[in-house]
Amino acid sequence: MSELEAGGGGPPAASLRLQSLLDGMRVAKVVQVLAELQVADALADGPRPVAEIAAEVGADPDALYRVLRCAASFGVFTERDDRRFGLTPMAELLRTGTADSHRDLFRMAAGDLWWRPYGDLLETVRTGRPAAERVFGMPFYDHLRADPAAADLFDRAMTQVSKGQAKAILSRRSFDRFRRIADIGGGHGYFLAQVLNSSPGSAGVLLDLPDVVAGAPPVLEKHGVADRVRVLSGSFFDELPKGCDAYLLKAVLINWPDDRAEQILRRVRQAIGDDPHARLLVVEPVVPPGDVRDYSKATDIDMLAIIGGRQRTVAEWRRLLRAGGFDLVSQPVPGRREVLECRPVRSRTASPVEFKESA
Predict the structure, then answer these.
(1) What is the structure's pLDDT at 9?
(2) How many angstroms separate the CA atoms of 1 and 100, rounded?
């Protein structure tokens, strides 16, 4: 929409703002395509003509020019004279294998793994059931187990997300007081490795499904903590390792509805047993109230349409944690990813390990 159209005779401002929301759909797909083609890698040594880029990445020169032009108008890449394009700070993040690469995140979130379920969002809102179940014919995590390539992309995208989160969390939170830290559902162990590097006196336990933790050893070796981590294969719905004084659940409970999340919490509570000093540390976003614009409110739709979980407010976290056998003792700040510190609550009617089991 041009400035002239936005002026006196054009649509009102509210209409323009509403129409501009469609740009998010368009640009996300454009960036995903450019990430898939590895265009940023082709420009690592400097700006190049679009014809050269197209020849290297296997694209039609005119089609690639139009897609790059769109991306450049939003600050992803920059257009020079004579159809030459170069990198911008955002485009640098689309390079392969760099420390802060976002390439796999865009390949996942704007590719078929996310895109196809979002195309069926209307039916999700009508039924309350994740679109992924209809699109893939099975729940999302079952689909990952059935499609190794999709699972690999998902794991790499989640590791890229963890990098930025780890830096932010560790800048304001110390784990030094915990002797033995269990990261339950910890993927390849990137976050646990950063925690242990920030707490040289601590050791770790990493638990996830067998096909996931199979990718952990090189990550732990790379970050110099392999000799301090015991790697276990298993599910957080089953019995968990005992004897740790901190149990991390990072981006785990977000993936499950309340009844299933409560089962995970009860497994952690069972593992803690009689130790009143052990702590559960839940690393999750906290949804702010009202009309505040926040990333968690957008990613909650990922949970609704794709995975089947949910983002939670402070009040919702308190209710869920209490149902799982914990009290929230920290004061989370809505609107950012928090470390929710929780202490075990001793039941008045049963010993700490006598929790009801799920069917």
Answers:
(1) 56
(2) 34
* Phi–psi pair at 328, nearest 5 degrees: -80, 120
> Which two structure tokens, joined as six digits, stand for 248?
């991390």
In the numeric block, which tokens belong to residue 336?
Answer: 């950012």
Distance between CA atoms of 17 and 77, rounded to whole angstroms?
24
> Which among 166, 321, 312 has a CA at the least distance from the CA of 250?
166
Q: Could you give the 3-state DSSP secondary structure of residue 342?
A: strand
pLDDT digits (tens, 9 = 90+) for 180-194: 999 999 999 999 999
CA angle in degrees (0–180, nearest 5) for 344-346-351: 120
Furthest CA-CA distance within the chain: 77
Q: Comparing C-alpha atoms, which of 257, 309, 306 is closest to residue 135?
A: 306
Give the DSSP letter string of 159-208: HHHHHHHHHHHHTT---TT-SEEEEET-TTSHHHHHHHHH-TT-EEEEEE
CA nearest neighbour of 169 among 328, 311, 337, 334: 337
Burial class (CB in 10 A: 0-12, 13-18, 19+), 205: buried
pTM of the predicted structure, to 2 decimals: 0.83
Q: CA quadruple 183, 186, 189, 190: dihedral positive or negative?
A: negative
Give 253's DSSP letter: G
* Distance between first and last Cα of the chain: 56
Provide the b/e sequence for 105-121 (b: ≥16 CB within 10 Å).
bbbbbbbebbbebbeee
- Can you say whether the dihedral through the CA atoms of 92, 94, 95, 101 is positive or negative? positive
- Token couple for 232: 């276990």
CA dist 81 and 71 (Å) reads: 16
* Average pLDDT score, the chain: 91
The crossing angle, in degrees rounded to 10, of helices 314-323 and 258-272 is 50
At 93, the amino acid letter reads L
C-alpha 189: how far from chain center? 14
* Cα of 265 vs its chain's centroid, Å: 20
